[in-house]
Amino acid sequence: MPENGAQRGRPLASPGLVWAPGRVPMSSRFSDIYYSRDGGLEEARHVFLGGCGLPGTWRNDESFTVCELGFGTGLNFLATWEAWRRARFKNARLHYIAVEGFPLLQSELSEALLEWPQLRAAVRGLMRVYPQPQRGFHRVFPKIRGDDDSSGVTLTLLFGNAHEMLSQLEARIDAWFLDGFSPDKNPDMWSAEVFTQLARLSHTLNGGTRLATYSAANSVREGLATAGFESVKTPGFGHKREMIRAHFRGGAKTEPLLQPWFARPPSAHGTRGHAAIIGAGIAGTSTALALNRRGWRTTLIDRREVIAAETSGNPMGILVPRLTAAANAHDGRFYAAAWRFVLDMLEDISESSSTMLRDRCGALQLATDDTETARQKSIMDAAMLPEPLLFQVNSKEVSDIAGCALPYGGLYFPQGGWLRPRAVCAALAQKSNTLLGVDAVSLTHSGGLWQVADGAGRVQTQADVVILANGLGSGAVPHTAWLPLVARRGQISMTPPTEMSASLRAVLSFGPYITPPYHGAHCVGATFDAADATQTFGDITANDADDVRNIAAINAVLPNMLEEQRTVAPHHRAAIRCTSPDHLPIAGPVPDQGAYLRDFAEMRHGHPWAKYPEAAYQAGLYVLTALGSRGLTAAPMAGEILAAHITGEPWPLERDLMTALHPGRFLMRDLKRREV
User: Fold this and answer.
1) What are phi and psi of 334, to 5 degrees?
2) 674: helix, coil or strand?
3) Which helix (H) or strand (E) holds 177?
4) What is the rounded CA–CA span in Å between residue 180 and residue 15?
5) How do residues 336-383 score in pLDDT, each as one tens digit?
6) Burial of 74 (0-12, 13-18, 19+ CB in 10 A)
7) 526-583 pLDDT, tens per residue?
8) SS3 label, residue 544
């Protein structure tokens, strides 16, 4: 079953990397080697690629998914990636998922892979994105310098117990590589529960999911047979006489783990299309990048004349994650994953941008009272983020990092800081077409395509899918009018440095926030007030009273940090943020409200899931909204989630997090409460 909160918060144990004679990496924890002494790369090609008929098996597939149990040194992934690149499939995507309960550190992985100079370019691509060990799902996009996104490789690392991780995975696996430490030394990797998950995630199309393992143990063959795999023993590699190859034939009964009201929508699995994205702020442009990466054509449509003109249009925005103390809380886990993802994305787009996108000055979340101190201790105890992404620091360390004397300890995010939202959005939108100054108010679906029309009824574009990513405007069409969107007015203030604040070198956050001075001004914010959801951007004006509030909030905790009531031009900016009742983003397919209320009317009675049909959706319509005040952190991961829904690809996060963001959660909540 899915892991509990205590397990989620527990740091991952080390495999105990040591070196056996012949310079072969070995785990002291399991007293087993990572690959054959006769040659690891050759073993990967013979056992796993050859065992699953690769690359021939994927020759006609636009999308192919491999899942490995036991990522180890990453050698099987590198061998697979190399074979994929050599095949040079145009506009095809390789999804490589790997489960690892005892991941190596970055430094250990790098040392182990020095043994393979012929893979040097691929190793550099992997090391650039390989995460420090942290329990959960990690989606990254390794690239070899000189390759473009058309190389089409996605790596999703699942760090944690094999059964727990597989139980949270939603994907259709085409090939399994079983490469855990031997069954007698690591039985958890080869358990009946794990084989059940293999069956749940496999399919019978085109000959069925293939499987290969170096092991020839009878217990493995028996476990595979029970799970619906037909296996044979074939010659092994090197000194190993036999190995197992298998095909999934089905027949094993597996319980569904995805609730029918969150069922995946029909999708053009592995195909490319055209997506019209309404809203050109951080939500829309993040989604555009995720779809462009998959070969989709995207058109960004916005009522304003420039990209990121509304909530995403502030001159500066802080980059700080929103963590929670509860290890099993959906919001804390989502934002921890989103934090890792946005940092990788910013590194990626910064390499190809000549514009300054951000300042990596670091961010400090100050513990200004006993309650916050206790909360931060709980965050550290829950291991929400590993070093070097998060440190707990005392007041002296805070002062040294900040550049000025401060009386508080806190949490330090070295990769945090501030960024320029408009510049980031522009970088994300580079491969998109844009229709700016167009108020898309009408959506009609006919002949399998969506027509997007303006207020005068003129069709501006048509597309295979439409994504509503325009904040409160996402609920302005009949298909989504039921979404419980909440409006919040936020204002930032630009204020000149004082003698005390001029030396500030890092972002300070404690509810209010202040950035280091840039071009003669701090950015201070931000108010977060209830607002009228019917207001348009033109109705929102900044005011001096909120500047006073912003500055006073800083001085209340950091006396005399700023001069009262003093701002500099452009001295303030206000906008309406969109949030949700549970403070999580809304990202996913748009339910057919009437069908939901009809099909799931009795769900509060606790009937078995099999009683219900799968959820019905508005065909080809998706929504990404309610990013609140953490849109800069949340949007890239939310965009990746949306792309996975649209294309039918493996989900990038654990199932419980994906369903926690699903738009249908509000309809189900109301049905449980008998409010509809």
Assistant:
1) -65, -45
2) coil
3) strand 175-178
4) 12
5) 999 999 999 999 998 888 788 999 999 999 999 999 999 999 999 888
6) buried
7) 899 888 766 555 567 888 899 999 999 999 999 999 988 677 666 789 999 999 999 9
8) helix
Tell me which H or E stretch contains 235: strand 229-235
Confidence of residue 270 (pLDDT cuts 50, 70, 90): low
Task: With CA atoms as reference, report the closest residue to 258 among 132, 134, 169, 326.
Answer: 169
Contacts for 595-602: CB closer than 8 Å, 24+ residues apart? 596/261, 596/664, 596/667, 596/668, 596/671, 597/667, 597/671, 597/676, 600/260, 600/261, 600/667, 600/668, 600/671, 601/671
pLDDT at position 38 is 86
Question: What span, in angstroms and rounded, lies between the C-alpha atoms of 367 and 557?
Answer: 11
Q: Max CA-CA distance within the chain?
A: 80
Burial (CB count <10 Å: 0-12, 13-18, 19+), residue 229: buried
Strands (DSSP E) found in 505-635: 507-509, 513-514, 522-525, 529-530, 572-579, 586-591, 617-625
Higher pLDDT, 56 or 300: 300
Q: What span, in angstroms and rounded, lies between the C-alpha atoms of 326 and 342?
A: 22
The SS3 assignment for 621 reads strand
Helix (H) or strand (E) holding 411: strand 410-413
Three-class SS of residue 47?
helix
12, amino acid identity: L
Whose CA is closest to 366, among 387, 404, 392?
392
Burial class (CB in 10 A: 0-12, 13-18, 19+), 421: buried
Give residue for tokens 């893979």: 119
Distance of CA 609 to the CA centre of its chain: 28
> Which residue type sits at 356?
M
SS3 for 428-453 is HCCCCEEEECCCCCEEEEECCEEEEE
Angle at 506 between CA 502 and CA 511, to 5 degrees: 105
